[in-house]
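Predict the 3D structure for this chain.
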Amino acid sequence: MLTAEIEHINVEALEVVIKERPNIIIEPHPSTFATIQNKYRQKLHLETHGIKVGSFIDVNTTSKETIAKSIHGKKVRSVNLLDL
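Done. Predicted structure below.
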């Protein structure tokens, strides 16, 4: 048995192992690691399965102004995501 920190797992490498060596069992499945490593995807998954999560937005597809308003509750001219 091998254990590792979730954040350091190379999901793509595990998918190659599964494809090339189908006799090797990897638990949980690499797609589960991919979900856990992406916090937005993780929250969507939990919410889809009826688990309550805090408010969240996709910062990759949402304007900086909308992000700032959702976090601070007020309109701002510009936001540096590193400052949030």
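The CA atoms of residues 46 and 52 lie 7 Å apart.
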